[in-house]
Specification:
Layout (H helix, E strand, L loop, with lengths): L11 E6 L14 E2 L2 E2 H12 L26 E5 L2 H9 L3 E4 L11 H11 L5 E5 L8 H12 L5 E8 L34 E12 H5 L8 E6 L12 H12 L12 E5 H5 L5 E2 L5 E2 L4 H12 L3 E5 L5 H7 L4 E3 L5 H12 L6 E4 L6 H6 L2 E4 L5 H6 L2 E2 L8 H26 L2 H4 L18
Parallel strand pairs: 1-4, 1-6, 4-5, 7-9, 10-13, 10-15, 13-14, 15-16, 16-17
Antiparallel strand pairs: 2-3, 6-8, 7-8, 11-12
Length: 449
């Protein structure tokens, strides 16, 4: 039942388990996926859902005085044992619970890590355990699940996906028997459109109330499933999934509250992006720089797609530009890059969402924050990397511009998908499934940390 008028509301916390010792892919949780750390995709969705709030607990710990008023702020947590994962989690606005060595072993279960978290946070009434390995999670899914558990009285809710797969019994080597059909009659095979399929856990999230978790359950009591769209059910588990997942994320991932717009202008910093930042001086005091021809191809491809490309530099490098023969408008000796960017945006009549920026230095940070699409080379300074939406695999002067151009092309395809998503938001509630099966179970999560 929903909390009544004047009654405290249950404290719902999001918890992402992100152990540092992944066996399959080292530090998988912060490996870049489509330019964003894997864990960043679900933290962004959790933040924008707006349902994870700090408040007074309905069941405060006896040793702790109850707050006089509701607490403010979000309650989105990452449980980790690794410094780098903690750093990335905080960049995305999450709070960090440093888990103990006892629940950080290869044999440790998700349930053990969640129970440890609750032992340290008596204010939390409900835990939404969100898997870092589900990068296509959307805020709309989390909002509906929060309603199921807070307003409709369910004790636990977990995500499922519908699959149309015929199952057969396994015959082990050496056994003298035949396989048997499990969910079909071979004489009357269903057509896909005539068969509703079956529901399978997809591991995206598991929500449960404190009293269940303390008893050793993640699914139990009054249970409900939440059916996610098949295209959002992406699970990173083995290395071969990574390139496939990047394409899925670009097509179906959640990129923020505002719908993407088509990029009309790319502004690129010359030093450290188009070049590697090095200046070579000859014996007769002439300066030389090097660049990668792939980046020139990338600029030309952008132009062919109708995207204006302009260059910017703090140095006076007119001779460098002349030698490159790029045919791009450029601003050199720029003491205020953000002002230059604002002037260009205004002259072209663009919104920030239609501007892309590729930078690499501290002087680029404000531009990176303002632009609708931002990127940095792999060797950009730390503050620039924090401000960017995409971190290239290539270094400056070594193909970063071409790589960022490809990223822009992929995200342009995302624009159409985002428009379709906006059209389906109003009808998303009809797609959610739920049941009232109250059979208890002690099923633990398959570890995906």
């Amino acid at each position: 039942m929903e909390a009544g008028e004047g009654q405290p509301k249950a404290h719902l916390a999001a918890l992402v388990l992100a152990r540092g010792g992944s066996k399959g892919i080292p530090l998988k949780n912060i490996k870049l996926l489509a330019g964003v750390p894997l864990i960043g995709w679900v933290l962004r969705a959790a933040t924008d859902a707006g349902v994870f709030h700090r408040c007074a607990s309905l069941h405060p710990h006896p040793s702790e005085p109850a707050p006089a008023a509701p607490l403010g702020g979000s309650s989105i947590w990452v449980s980790t044992d690794h410094d780098e994962i903690e750093k990335v989690a905080k960049q995305f606005g999450a709070q960090v619970h440093r888990r103990s060595p006892e629940v950080s072993q290869d044999s440790s279960t998700s349930l053990e890590a969640i129970r440890e978290f609750l032992n340290h946070h008596h204010e939390v009434d409900i835990v939404g355990n969100i898997q870092a390995t589900s990068p296509c999670l959307h805020p709309s899914d989390l909002i509906k699940v929060a309603d199921l558990i807070q307003k409709e009285g369910f004790d636990s809710v977990f995500s499922v996906v519908r699959r149309h797969q015929f199952r057969w019994s396994e015959v082990k080597k050496g056994e003298d028997k035949m396989t048997e059909p499990q969910n079909l009659n071979p004489a009357k095979r269903y057509r896909r459109q005539d068969w509703p399929g079956e529901l399978y856990e997809n591991g995206s999230f598991y929500f449960a109330k404190r009293h269940l978790i303390e008893k050793g359950y993640l699914q139990g009591g009054k249970m409900a499933y939440y059916e996610m769209r098949a295209e959002h059910s992406v699970d990173i588990d083995i290395d071969i999934d990574w390139p496939i997942a990047e394409q899925r994320v670009l097509s179906f991932g959640y990129f923020g509250k505002e719908p993407l717009k088509e990029v009309k202008l790319l502004v690129c910093s010359i030093d450290g992006c188009l070049t590697n930042g090095r200046i070579y001086v000859t014996e007769d005091q002439k300066e030389m720089v090097s660049y990668d021809y792939r980046d020139i191809v990338g600029i030309n491809l952008l132009k062919k797609r109708g995207i204006e490309v302009r260059l910017i530099s703090e140095r006076h490098c007119s001779k460098t530009l002349s030698a490159m023969k790029l045919g791009c408008i450029a601003k050199i000796s720029a003491t205020n890059k953000l002002q230059v960017l604002e002037d260009w945006k205004k002259d072209m009549g663009l919104s920030w969402k239609e501007v892309a920026y590729l930078g690499n230095e501290e002087s680029d940070v404000e531009c990176l924050k303002k632009a609708g699409m931002s990127g940095v080379p792999a060797d950009a300074c730390t503050v620039a990397q924090k401000a960017a939406g995409y971190i290239c695999k290539s270094s400056g002067g070594c193909g970063a511009v071409r790589e960022f151009a490809e990223h822009i092309f992929l995200l342009l395809e995302k624009v159409n998908s985002a428009r379709k998503q906006m059209e389906t938001v109003s009808s998303a509630g009809e797609e959610a499934g739920g049941n009232d099966n109250s059979r208890r179970g002690s099923t633990e999560l398959i570890k995906k940390e």
